[in-house]
Each structure stands twice: as structure tokens, then as C-alpha cells.
Amino acid sequence: MSSATKECDYLVLGIGSGGIASGRRAAKHGAKVIAVESSRGAPEFDWPYFKKKRDAYVKRLNGIYENNLNKDEIEHFRGRAKFVGKDEVEVDLHDGGVQRIKAKHILIATGGRPKLPEIPGKELCISSDGFFDLEKLPKSIATSGAGYIGVEMTGMLHALGSKTHFFIRGDKLLRTFDPMIQDAVTKEYERQGINLYKGSQITKVEDIGNGLKRESTVEVEEGPYSRLVACLKLKTSKIKDFGIKLNDKNHIVTDDYQNTSLPNIYAIGDVCDRGFELTPVAIAAGRRLSDRLFGNQPDARLVYENIPSVVFSHPEIGSIGLTEPEAREKHGDQVKVYKTEFSGMYFAMMDPEHKQPTAYKIVCIGKEEKVVGLHILGQASSEILQGFGVAIKMGATKKDFDNCVVRTLNPLHFLLPHLRARACNAGSGGVLFVGLRGTISANIPFLVGYPPRVSAEELVRVFLTPPTRALTAPYHTC
Q1: What is the CATH T-level fold of the domain 6-112+235-294, as seen in this structure?
Q2: Which of 206, 237, 338, 452 is the most exposed place for a label (fewest CB within 10 A)?
Q3: Using CB atoms within 10 A of its CB, is residue 208 exposed (0-12), middle (13-18) or buried (19+)?
Q4: Which alpha helices (H) appear in 255-323, and where do they start and end?
Q5: Is 92 annotated as a binding residue?
Q6: Is 320 annotated as a binding residue?
């Protein structure tokens, strides 16, 4: 049964990070806001140990979202929305009934959803979202998709102890990243023991009783696998019939101000074509859109150039600005590149097979060597990148980088000898340690996960080594 049509200034479709940020900012500017979300709320998990912890964290986040909506007096509904006019949607409510809403402005912030390949037996596969429903760690798993979702998922499952088989269509991982990153992460995943099948594509999946069997375009081990995870590109909502322009990947086409092809309808986040499927980007874009629509800031918009992005691979990856090929295509012979590869001091006391690589590349242009790209692989890359993001946005040069010398306590010099920890079994002979880490300001508790095949005896030997004196050392890039 349909209720009376509600009216508002701003209708937000999708209560994710970007939608909530935009809706709350609009409400603070005095707009009447209504939000619609198709999910039914926080999912329920029962995976023992960290699954319980993760569930509590997800529940807490959902509670924060709900409280923020209520605090800013944003009316919200749970249901699936569809356009019935250029300024009106109809919501099929999860608890029954239909609600119509008319708005002066409508924001589409519904995000992306993982998709499964169109192959026989696809119902036997799970997407990256399905990982959260696993009741136990798979003993053997096949993954597909060379993008950041596939790289993160495969690296994590391998580190947890699953026998991992990784199928990719090309010959390298992360093909949209700088070639140095592609080469380094592909080589490292193979070195770690991940079974990487290049130039392959899964064509069929079937249940053979004791697990899953798959067929592919290359002759390799067919199974059985406990699970098969398809880590493919996210798909977006089906809105073609309404007339909003989409690109060839079904993303909503937007201009610099998040406008779609239809007046007073906007899009942010994974659903639009801006190329950054990142939560902070959606939040920033949503807030600036509300500032423009309701905050008397007609020029407010998010500038998408030089946005840092990271991949939580093993090891981590950070990237900002132009890749080397992009820079050479745009600036030709003006491009100059600096790069280095080494093994960080963090791994100094480990055997060679447990040492992860570190690689840095700076892409510069012109006589002043303005930095237009920075690409790093190695421990803590996600944290390291943040400060460089500000520098590159402000037009820093290679000389600026060289002149930035920091004198500080370097925790990597004395981290291992100072760990005093209790070991617990982490499967496959692996161990986890909780200890203290020296930083500039304080000793901060942290959790370190070592590769599953590092023996407890080897690490105990390291821990019993007398602590070394804390060292101070100048540090500069390149």
C-alpha cells in the first residue's frame, strides 16, 4: 500500500560513506534531506575469533551511521528505490508498503556491487563480499581478477594459510598501476608461493563432491578447491531505462561538479565514472556537492587530480599522480624518472625467503623536476604516501624532496630486538606477536603478523637478542 508522497530538498539514494557525508552536509546548510538505503542493515557473522571482532566493529560503524542520521534529523528509509519521474522516486520498503518521494535535487550514491563471471556454475562461486560469510578458512582456494580487489583478497588468504591459486587474464597484476608496481607485486606474489596462472580465464565451475572443480583456458590443476572467489570489477545499479548517460563500463557519466546528464540529478562514489573507488573520495565529493547546492558555494567541487590511492596487498602499495607511461604520453622528453629497490631494515634479521621488497619511483617533469607521480611498494606504504600527497598537490620538486631531511628515532632500526611478546599459534607453524613499538611520541601497542612459515624457534631466537641502543639517523628520499 502506497503512503502519501513525501517532499524534500535533497534525496540521497544510498546511505554509504559518500551519501551520508553529502546528506549531513546538506542538512547542516538547512536543506530538508531524505535518504534511502536498499540493504537491510548490518550483516550477521558467526566466524569464530576475528569474525566475532569484525562483526562487533561493523555493528558499531552501522550504529554510528544511524546515530549521525538521527542527530542531523535526516529521515531515512530501508528499501529499493526506482525513478518514476525526473524529480520523484518510488521506494519498495523492506518492511512492506511503498513510499514515494519528490525532491528538488537527487543524489545517486548507491555504490558498486561485486559481480560473478557469466560462466556455467557461477552460482558455486562467491564474490569478494562472500568472503565475509565464510564459516572457516578454506584449505584451498581459486581466485580470479588482477585488480586491487583480487590482489588484496589473494594476498590475505595466502597469508592466512590457504593454498591459493590465482587466475589472471594478462601477464601482470594491477595493470592500471605504474609498470614498476606491476612487475614488483607480480614477482613478489610468485616468490611468496602463490600459484599464479597468467593468460588464463576460468570458463566453468562444477561441484565434484569433495570440493569445486574448475575449467580454464590454460592446462593447470583443476581442483578440488574449497572455494572459488571471483574478484571482478564492481557493477553498478541498472538505471539505463531512465535515460541517465552511462559509459561503456556502466558507470554514470558526471562532469567536474558531479552533474549527470539529467538536470538536478547527481552521482558520487563507485557508481560514477571518476575512476576512484575510494571511501574518502566519495565523502569529499559528497560534501563539496552539498556545499555547492545548499551552502552558497557555487564553485565547490572535488579536484580529482593527485588523489593518493593504496592497495592493501602483501606488501602494501601506494600511488599518486601520473604513471611513467602516462607522463611520457603527456609530457614527452620532459620526463625524468628516479627509482630504487631494496629490502627494508625491518627485515634485516629475517632469512632471505621472508624478506619483502621495497620499491620507490618518482616521476618528474621539466627543468625544475616537478614531481607529477610517486609510486611505492613496501611496508607501511599506505601511511608513507599521505604526506607526499600534500607535497605533490602543492607542486613540490625533486629538489624539495632532497632538501627535506628529518632527524628522528627510526623504529625500524630497533623494532625486532625490543619486542617482548607472547606467541600464539596462527596455523601452518605461524605465529602472531603483540608488543610495543618505539615511535617519536610514545610506545604504541601493535600487532605484527609474520609469514606462516617462519618458525617459532627462529623468532624466539631474535627476541632473546639483547636490545640495541636506539639509533638516530637523517633520512631523505632519493
Answers
A1: FAD/NAD(P)-binding domain (3.50.50)
A2: 206
A3: exposed
A4: 279-294
A5: no
A6: no
Residue 377 scores a pLDDT above 50:
yes
State the cell numbers at 287.
Answer: 560534501
Contact assessment for residue 342 and residue 378, using Cβ atoms and an 8 Å cutoff: no
Judge contact between 126 and 214, C-beta under 8 A.
no
What would the DSSP string read from start to end of 282-298?
HHHHHHHHHHHHHSS-T
8 Å CB contact between 427 and 434: no
| Coil, helix or strand at residue 207 | strand
H or E stretch at 55? helix 50-71
What average pLDDT is seen over the chain? 78
Specify the pTM: 0.72
Please check if 145 is assigned to a binding site: yes
150 annotated ligand binder? yes
Partners of 298 in the β-ladder: none
- Indicate the SS3 state at residue 76: strand
Cis, bond preceding 117 (omega within 30 deg of 0): no
**Closest by Cα among 288, 250, 255 to 274:** 255
- Neighbour tally for 458: CB within 10 Å: 15
C-alpha cell at 454: 617462519
- Cell for 350? 629475517
Contact in structure between 407 and 416 (CB atoms under 8 Å): no
Decide: 88 and 102 in contact? Cβ < 8 Å.
yes
| Mean pLDDT computed over 307-321 | 93
CB 294 within 8 A of CB 136: no
Closest among 384, 359, 394 to 178, alpha carbons compared? 359
* Position with higher pLDDT, 292 vs 138: 292
* In the chain, domain spans: 6-112+235-294, 122-230, 309-404, 411-475
255-296 per-position pLDDT tens digit? 999 999 999 999 999 999 988 888 889 999 999 999 999 999
pLDDT of 433 > 70? The answer is: no
Q: Which amino acid is at 309?
A: S
Over the stretch 20-35, which tens digit does the pLDDT of each residue have?
899 999 999 999 999 9
Q: Looking at 398-464, list the stretches that DSSP marks H as alpha helix, in order from N- to C-terminal side.
A: 398-403, 411-418, 456-463
Distance of alpha carbon 361 from alpha carbon 282, whole angstroms = 27
Is residue 402 part of an annotated ligand binding site? no
Domain at 309-404: CATH architecture: 2-Layer Sandwich (3.30)
Residue 415 corresponds to which cell in the numbers above?
Answer: 623494532
**pLDDT of 231:** 67
270 is in an annotated binding site: yes
CATH class of 122-230: alpha beta
Same fold, 6-112+235-294 and 122-230: yes
CB 310 within 8 A of CB 316: yes
Give the residues across from 89 on adjacent strands: 83, 101
Strand 265-267 relative to strand 227-230, pairing: unpaired
